[in-house]
Amino acid sequence: MSQVHGRQKPAESVWDYPRPPRMVPDVRHIIVRHVGIVLADSRRCIRVLETSHPPVFYVPRQDIRMDLLTQSTRLTRCEWKGVASYWTLKVLGRTVRDVAWSYEEPDAAYAALADHVAFYPGRVDSCTVDGERVLPQPGGFYGGWITDEIVGPFKGVPGSEGW
């Protein structure tokens, strides 16, 4: 159970999330940090919900230290959202390749994701949602954010390749 306005609410099952994914505006306080630097700080994210995946928080670029990110050469394709571009972090002499991704020209149904970037919580020191520290989605390929408000099992664990 998670707290909402002082009341308990049942945890969301990722198996109740839709396919194709749904986008939901989210005003909770999102902070992404690495080596003591705040990379992102927002209350204007888009939360993407997809069957079997922990949610992904897409942060508006205006709320990100984009001066610390450079676009990498990696590209992948999502059957729903389109071509994903990846971003490398360079901060305090440290480099984290493909720390985040974005859809520079998302497919029409996901146009709201343009000018937003999603961070892999396992590739930075911390991601928080209203102060709760996020756990990364298992497996390293997907970038879902696990919080107390959701339950799995989650895609990415060993044996889930066919889900």
Write up what this structure looks like.
With 163 residues, the protein is mainly β. The chain has a single domain (2-151), classed as Domain of unknown function (DUF427) (Metal Binding Protein, Guanine Nucleotide Exchange Factor, Chain A). It is built from no helices and 17 strands. The chain has strands spanning 2-4, 7-9, 12-13, 22-26, 30-34, 37-42, 45-49, 56-60, 69-78, 82-91, 94-102, 116-119, 126-129, 132-133, 135-136, 145-146, 150-151.
Q: Estimate the mean pLDDT confidence.
A: 93
The coarse silhouette is globular
| Sheet with the most strands, sense and barrel status | 7 strands, antiparallel
**Which parts are unreliable, with pLDDT below 50 for 5 consecutive residues or more?**
none
Layout: helices, strands, pairs:
Elements: E1 2-4, E2 7-9, E3 12-13, E4 22-26, E5 30-34, E6 37-42, E7 45-49, E8 56-60, E9 69-78, E10 82-91, E11 94-102, E12 116-119, E13 126-129, E14 132-133, E15 135-136, E16 145-146, E17 150-151
Parallel strand pairs: 3-17
Antiparallel strand pairs: 1-2, 4-7, 5-6, 5-13, 7-8, 8-12, 9-10, 10-11, 11-12, 13-14, 15-16
Labels describing this entry:
163 residues, mainly beta, Metal Binding Protein, Guanine Nucleotide Exchange Factor, Chain A, 7-stranded antiparallel beta sheet, 4-stranded antiparallel beta sheet, 17 strands, 0% helix, globular
Task: Give me a quick take on this structure.
The protein is mainly β and 163 residues long.
